[in-house]
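Quick one - inputs below.
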Amino acid sequence: MTLETLQNRLGYRFADTKLLLEALTHRSFGLPNNERFEFLGDSILNCVMSMALFARFEQLREGELSRVRASLVRQDALHRIARDLDLGEALRLGEGELKSGGSSRPSILADALEAVFAAVFLDGGFDAARSVIDRLYVPLLAEVDPRRPSKDAKTALQEWLQARKVALPTYVMVQALGEAHAQEFEVACEVPKLGIRTLGRGPSRRIAEQQSAELALTALRAK
Amino acid sequence: MTLETLQNRLGYRFADTKLLLEALTHRSFGLPNNERFEFLGDSILNCVMSMALFARFEQLREGELSRVRASLVRQDALHRIARDLDLGEALRLGEGELKSGGSSRPSILADALEAVFAAVFLDGGFDAARSVIDRLYVPLLAEVDPRRPSKDAKTALQEWLQARKVALPTYVMVQALGEAHAQEFEVACEVPKLGIRTLGRGPSRRIAEQQSAELALTALRAK
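Output:
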């Protein structure tokens, strides 16, 4: 894929295409590569998603906003967008990575996409990066259904663990916070065998459990 | 303190001071309060710090940038800035919180400061929030010395645990990644009694240990 095509798909034209090229360069290719860009792009993405969710879901509380955001910035979501862009075809990888299928590896694609967001910021400023991200995330944001929180997080965690033959997690009520009319519950999700203990919060015990499961899943996927 | 004085100290004048007022309203006071603003402000702060560190420390790798950023966005740092602004005097707290000294509680002050950053963004856009944050962070950024990484993180973690009579952490080498000339080490910091296991990375085992200690400390402080 040419850089021309990629820029069309991103809906952004670089003044300095060297920045885009650096964003597409995996560390296996040499220096300079996209590792520092990824650091920056990750936090720009987080920020833009926070803004989008804050504006879109006026009824959601902090804990729920965090949970939804986590589902949008994790590797799965980024990988899906990168795949739709055919980003793999534009990557610059070292020979070893290339031969072992690096250009379709979810982690490499997700990192490169974050790096591309940073490159747009460095080239055109925050608002340029924000509109590229907003545009690419239209389909994923449309799927967000905050009222059906993570019915899927506990199920997804269970499936993840079963696939690896690890005992199911236990959910432990840690504390109830706040006054009676606005209570908040804190629940720990524990998977001792994998050294995981995450804390979820929410206006009900069920939502707190879902959040803790979501965080556990994020931690396990990142391992 | 009047909102006038606070705006002078922030170096920003609100078009809509209702936003500032909402940022200063703790949940104990009622609704609307600053919880949702805090969600947004936290990620704006993270993003602005990433930009500042990315531009300032061209030699730092991703893991080191993350470590330095963590030290700048954690409660201690925010509390210090909030104290310098006398933010506590401007807070709106419920009666119970007020009597129990809520206006000088580090977590309440840190959260409110993040909420103020969100209010500036909502009132004046990203660049306005960025310049307020950059300005307030001048003293803290000046103190950052990335070459002496977190000699202090391991020490600080040890002191934190000793003060609570918890056994010292163990550092376990998890894996070495990458090729010989650009290896990266992954180390786990474990505090089993408190259910903590964090992973640090870095170009040397020592730096990976420091990073894992930093993350453990962040997790413990957030508990």
